[in-house]
Amino acid sequence: MTINKVNIRSKDSIFISDWLIKNGHKAFRQKQIEDWLWKKNAHSFEEMLNIGKGLINDLNKNFYIDRIQLSDKQISNDSTVKCAYSVGETQVVEGVLIPTNKRSTACISSQVGCGLACKFCATGKLKMLRNLSPGEIVDQVVSLNEISLKNLNRPISNIVYMGMGEPLLNYKNVLRSTEILCSEKGLGMSPKRITVSTAGIAKMITKLGDDEVKFNLALSLHAANDKKRSEIMDINSSNNLNDLKDSLKHFYNKTGTRVTFEYIIFDQFNDNPEDAYELASFAKCVPCKINIIEYNPIDGEDFKQAEIEKVNDFAAILESKNLVVNIRRSRGKDIDAACGQLANKNKSATNRENQMKRKRV
Fold first, then answer.
1. Closest by Cα among 133, 136, 159, 180 to 34
2. Phi and psi torsions of 262, nearest 5°
3. Contacts of 86 by beta carbon, 8 Å cutoff, 6+ apart
4. What are the tens digits of pLDDT across the range 202-234?
5. Residue 56 per-residue DSSP state
6. The pLDDT of residue 300
7. Active-site residue list
């Protein structure tokens, strides 16, 4: 039972050290406990072999360790791996391992569901249920790292917060998870290997600058005029392009980190030369690179991928304006693991939904 107990992985080193002292234990145990929690990935206090039974008993009385559990795994024809993770009794989130010749990228979720309802995104059709804890976020990376080591004989090289949910609406937990992943007690990742992607919450982008974060920032732009962007992204009505431009300038001035603009290119919507010139103009607000992303179909929407000739022409216009441009080909589409497709379309989610229906009946 976890009633009246505190999730110890949601607490920082200072809290744990203070608790130890107040309860008659040595402060140096804090490092041992956190080593077990993060580096050794302990699932219970009983696994902490060097801290003594008395402390284990006190920890069990006051704390619990939140865990996620791998409940389903699918492997794409291109070796992309999509994992469904149980988070609580009825909730499921998804994470993806994206391998290339040079990289193993972990794409992870920050929320159960999403409340932004972007028209082109399957996750946006789900309800926003709750934020993931720092431990639940880190667990996805640990799991995907283990799969990469097993399947590819190499650890993950990059982490992108581009799965389910809006990371900047789970600000505190997302930042805490990046701190853990970059620390010695975690995976020791370089923050420059981590990218947090946002649909565009201007005040939180400003806060990232104020906090002088070291990781990379990506903005899901997809249109560089307010009318078109508002058609596909409701968030633009309260965070328009001028607001975003100001926040991005602040972020860059505070961090010196180049921003990535993500641009899903749709057939006959945002793929014409005028759209490219608008994007080029907006992108000049900060040093940046632009990722043109292939659209991945989702149920219930009529969007189509732009023709390859128009994509290439679009990229050429941007390059003529001295912008750095990459055309990203999607991976994992056959298992609904590509950009915008995460929506719990897996056996684990279906089984849990059926179980809940039976309980209600």
1. 180
2. -100, 130
3. 68, 69, 70, 71, 92, 348, 352
4. 999 999 999 999 999 999 999 999 999 999 999
5. H
6. 58
7. 94, 339
How far CA 132 is from CA of 74, 347, 353, in Å, comes to 22, 21, 19
Gyration radius of the chain over CA positions:
21
Interhelix angle 171-182/134-152, rounded to 10 degrees, is 40
Q: Identify any residues that bridge with 63 across adjacent strands, giving them in sequence order.
A: 6
Helices (H) and strands (E) in the chain, counts: 11, 14
Q: What is the DSSP letter of 307?
A: P
All structural domains of the chain: 6-64 (1.10.150.530), 69-350 (3.20.20.70)
How many whole angstroms separate alpha carbon 242 and alpha carbon 186? 38
CA distance 143 to 41: 10
Q: Can you tell me the distance from the alpha carbon of 293 to that of 333, in angstroms, rounded to the nearest whole number?
A: 13
Q: What is the pLDDT of residue 76?
A: 86
Per-residue pLDDT reduced to its tens digit, 264-310: 999 999 999 999 999 999 999 999 999 999 887 766 567 888 899 99
Q: Are 303 and 295 in contact (CB under 8 A)?
A: yes
How far apart, in whole angstroms, are the C-alpha atoms of residue 118 and residue 109?
Answer: 16
- Extended strands (E) in 137-214: 158-161, 194-198
Task: Give CA torsion, residues 312, 315, 319, 323, to 10 deg.
Answer: -160
Q: Where are the beta strands (DSSP E) in the chain?
A: 6-7, 63-64, 69-75, 81-86, 92-99, 104-107, 111-112, 130-131, 158-161, 194-198, 216-220, 259-265, 288-294, 324-328
For the chain (length 361 residues), average pLDDT per consecutive 10?
A: 84 96 97 94 95 97 95 89 90 93 94 89 82 96 96 96 96 96 91 97 98 98 97 96 98 98 94 97 98 80 86 97 89 51 48 40 30
